Amino acid sequence: MSRQRQDQLLQTLLRQDDWATAASLADLFGVTPRSIRSYVAALNARATGGDAVESGPAGYRAGAGAHATLRARATGESAPRDRLHTVVRMLLDESEGIDVFATAERLHVSEATLEADLARVRGLLDGTELRLERERETVRLLGTEIAQRRLLSRLAHDEMDAGSFHPESIRRALTGSAVAAHAVAPFKTALVRELGALGYYVNELAISDVLLHIAIAADRVSAGRALETPQPGASEEIPKLGGVITQLAAEHFGVALGEGDSAHLATLVLTRAIAPGQSVGHDVARSGVDQAVEAAVRAEIVQAAADYQVDLVDEAFILRLALHVQNLLRRAEEQAWTRNPLTRSLKSSYPMIFEVAVSIASGLHDRLGAPIHDDEIAYIAMHIGGRLERSRKAESILTATIVCPGYYELHELLRSSVDRSLGASVEVTSVVTSVDPDWDAIDTDLVLSTIEPGANGDRYVRIQPFLTEADVERVSQAAARMRRTRRLTRLREELSRYFVADAFVRPLQDEGEEAVIRRLGGLLVGAGLIAGDYVENTIVRERMSSTAFTDALAVPHALQMTAQRTAIAIGVADGSVAWGEGRVQVVALAAFSESDRTAFQTVFEQLVEVFSERESVQRIVRRGTSFEAFLDELVAVIDG
């Protein structure tokens, strides 16, 4: 039974934070409900601090021991992946090589099994600067020290929990190294403090990834594997940062870093984990960016702002993103990508922002040549999200009228309380002090009344003259319902226009992303709605970053809006189909036209929202056996 599959199940339950039936989980993973029950039993057998998975009439959900179970490292495992990592670590540690017969005996496996493991090691080394050399029974790993450290980093990342970069997780991934377990977290705290004192913003999501490299360097230096003297011409900031890292490594790890390691680690910190703070002027910050990079970023920002009709053009924002892209290019040169533990949640929670990031990344790839991976795209999405946050908040604010019959300054006090408690989501535009207002004449989104409303509807909320916490909660819930109703109403209107009855496939075959895209795209081509190049461009977009925006839905599409008219082809699997690193149950191939740019955001974001709700997904998939039934169930779910 795959431990990796067990962990994937537990991670899914943690993301859902709700009950899920064995059948729905089986569909998601492409297995039987019996297998799901086996995974649950195995997870609970591994758990030490309470059940990892709770069971009940409604199915399964993550239990109190879920996080501890994911972080607990099993001992004495002989699973192929664990044994492969052990063999690689032995090769890295033994510069003279390992003896095949002695190693097989040490690992309690046959010589044939170890030979198979060595073949897998050779596959692991493909595309790296490392290679295996064999002389009779002795096998050696050859390559530069930098390449060997990259391999160590790759193994450690593979052993760490997906999306987890806690110091404890890093320590566990480096078990057996010279780095003391209790020193990892204090080192990280001190490093962040010192970097802040030097005037840098610290990226907490990336600093732990850098910490992993520092721990690897400390271990290798203690084993006599120091790097060579650094190359001349490094940034002026390198010696300063290197001095900080060297001092802290000696203090916390008891390791004396040489000039080569000091400069190498300082470069990692500079290109991955920090950015100039407010004390650093724009001119100084700009001096660290190649003019070609800044020009490319500016051009792509302007293009994305026009394509997606969002407010992105801002000099400070362009400079910050250019600095990030400059560092991204340096990481690409070293094939040293930075992981982002928020990639999955950003993609599912903010699909539109992520899509803008994909578009910008695609353009930067064309202009600058560097491949940009999913985690790097997620960092670009975070820059974009920060820029768009204000405008997104402004769009989500609802207008409200307060109805509060006049008595001294009571209505003024109430308005002040509403502004203070709900100002982030509700804007009071008028106050009515009459005891018998014209309810039909009030045209704001919400009506907050201290007297019984003279009309019915979700927008009317009864509150007390002196606002209570319960009042705040009721208004917040009403506002949330109003916003959701608006979004889904727009979605219902759009979908009724864009779904194509002849482009509905059920059951969808599990034949790979590209084959599914060609199958669904071919139906739209046959209907004369898109040309063949749209299908090819959709495949190109899919290769950049998976369009599986939730655990149930993939929305493949091209970055170019070249469809004759906006149209959506739907494929529904009886169980699930492989997509990206996971599986999905529904594939909605969306083709957008230039004239329907405004529909892109409505359809894209809200369709993802609907398919983020497990109960809704199961209802639509189970009952949507035909195009008409699928559309009926989708509309019913939208209408609530």
From TrEMBL:
Gene3D superfamilies: Mannitol-specific EII, Chain A, PRD domain, Winged helix-like DNA-binding domain superfamily/Winged helix DNA-binding domain. The keyword Transcription does not apply. Residues 497-640 form the PTS EIIA type-2 domain. Pfam families: HTH_11 (PF08279), PRD (PF00874), PTS_EIIA_2 (PF00359). Keywords: Repeat. It comes from the Bacteria. InterPro entries: BglG_antiterminators, HTH_11, PRD, PRD_sf, PTrfase/Anion_transptr, PTS_EIIA_type-2_dom, WH-like_DNA-bd_sf. Residues 288-394 form the PRD domain. This is Transcriptional antiterminator. It comes from Microbacterium murale.
